[in-house]
Amino acid sequence: MFKTTAYYDRLTSFFSTPWWMYLLMGINFILLAALIMLYPELLAYLVAGFLLFNGLLMVILAFRYRSLRKRNRGWQEDFWIEV
Known about the structure:
The chain is mainly α. The chain is built from three helices and no strands. Keywords: Membrane, Transmembrane, Transmembrane helix.
């Protein structure tokens, strides 16, 4: 019982660590919307910058979740969790 609880505590803490990435993406959405309203003639450049920035954040998150999958297998072996 305790080993299963420790597994879920570690899993929850891993998913809550990249909170600042989600915060940056949210701020980026708000900033993009405000800039498009102020400067509609720069729409293409603003959208391109937005997509580039958020694309890079998504790649970083993808690598973090990939490492989680590898650690998940180790946790399951350590805590004898059957899937």
